[in-house]
Every structure is written in C-alpha cells, then in structure tokens.
Amino acid sequence: METKLKLLVKNYSQNRTLGDRPKPFVKWVGGKRQLIAQFQGLNVYPPKNFDIQNNIYFEPFVGGGAMFFDLLPSNAILSDLNHELITTYRIIKNNVEDLIIDLEKHKTDKDYFLEVRSWQPKELDELSIASRFIFLNKTCFNGMYRVNSKGGFNVPFGKYTNPTICNKDNLRRVSNALQKAEIKHQDYKEVLKIAKNGDFIYFDPPYYPVSKTSSFTSYTSEAFLEKEQIELRDTLVELHQRGCFVMLSNSDTPFINQIYSNLTDIRTLKVQANRAINSDATKRGKVGEVLITNY
Predict the structure, then answer these.
(1) Shortest CA distance to 106 belongs to which of 93, 95, 115, 96?
(2) What pTM, to 2 d.p., does this model score?
(3) Residue 169's domain spans which residues?
C-alpha cells in the first residue's frame, strides 16, 4: 500500500509539473508540441551533451516556441522575421498584465473580427499589435498565419463557439519563462553569428512545399524556396563545423532529402505529424517530415 501511495504521489507531482509548464500562446500551423515525444523517442532531443545551464539555445524561426517552452533553457535567443510575432513575444515578456487587460476587451464576432483584421499594425502601438495578433490567431480559421504579398493578414474568421482568447495563467507562465530569453527581430544568419561550440540550434523554417498547390500559408511576404533552403543547409553545415548541436525540421520531399544527403556527420530521420489545415476534412491527417541532426 505504501509503495502504491508513493507512486500515486510521484505521478501527481510529475503531472502537476507538466501542467504548470508554459505552453505556446498561439496556435501555429506546423507547431512542434505534438512531435516532442517522437523526438525524445529517437534520442535526439535534447542533445545529450548540451549544457542547458551554461550554453545557449537558439530558435531562429521561433513561431509558437513549443521547443523552447518544453526545454526551458537558462540562456536562449529566440528570433524571427515576423515583426508582429516578435512584438508579441516582447510584450508578453515585459508587459503581460496590460496585455491581459487588453485581450479581455475582445469579442468573438465575425464583423468585429473583420474590423480588427483591417487594422494596420504600422499604425498601432506595440501593446495593440500584440493584442490584435493573439486575438486574430485565436479566432481565425485553424489558427493559420498567412499574409499576402503586401504583408497583410488575410485569413478568414474561424467560426468558433467560444475560443479562449486570453489564457491568463499561461500568459503569465510564458512571461516568466521569457525572462531568461533574448528576443530578436532579425534574420537567422545574423542571429547565429555568435553561436559557438556546445550551443544548441533548432531550426523550424518555412517548409518546402510538398506540391505546387500546397504553399498557401505565406508566413512572411518573402519567399523561402530552393535558394533559401540551400542557404539554410549551408548554415547548418557551418554551425556543425563550429561544434554546435543542430536540429532541423522540414517537409519530407525529394528536394529536401537530396540537399541533405551525402553530408558528413549529418543524418536524416523521419517523423509523422498531424496536419489539420485543409478545408476538406478528408484530406487531413498524418504527413511525413524529416528531422536533420548533426549528433
């Protein structure tokens, strides 16, 4: 009986710890929270020799930040070229209570959604940019982030019954976690100039499209196709030569597999991810992804 009780207490403690951990504050197409268990099962996450207390964790395409919020490193640099996303990270880190107050003013209504969507971020202060960003994410179709060639957000209303626009407890946990992170609106090449031996970099870039019709979720107004994917591969090789631990996710396509083949000490693993962004429910389901590591 005593052994059983100790086991119950241990399980409760572990579950409570997991429940108290911060979670991504936005829904993000391609978010990695669902894949962390697979990464751990493949013994590639986190790198066994990564010193989480002293070395730096980099997430240059941070998105929802699922990996950062799971790892909770002592030193981190989170970066992205999505200005609204990075502004939101900074507001959560530095001004979470005012953000919570502003988020609670929003309402779930299509006409109101279209009004907020029409607001121009360049005309808003940073708090309003963050509040708008989270509101649109929580109420738009499937939490997609898509912009047109001019950088305008153009995802339709999601028709949710009662979405949680403001999760106060999680926002405060996120804010606390971000106190140990540096947040940059910067190209990944610039950010990684300071990466050194023993640091851990996780790349989750815009995925290479699996077909000519699948590239419909433009993350920024800039493209990220063959040229950009090859430049990213070359950066990975350079980081490997510096002694960094590097891990990269991408689509399981002939092009991606080809550009990472025949590289010394670089291996390619396969994982399965759930995708639910197709308007046709019959076309949703598991899709293959590749996981590239140098360790």
Answers:
(1) 115
(2) 0.88
(3) 83-185
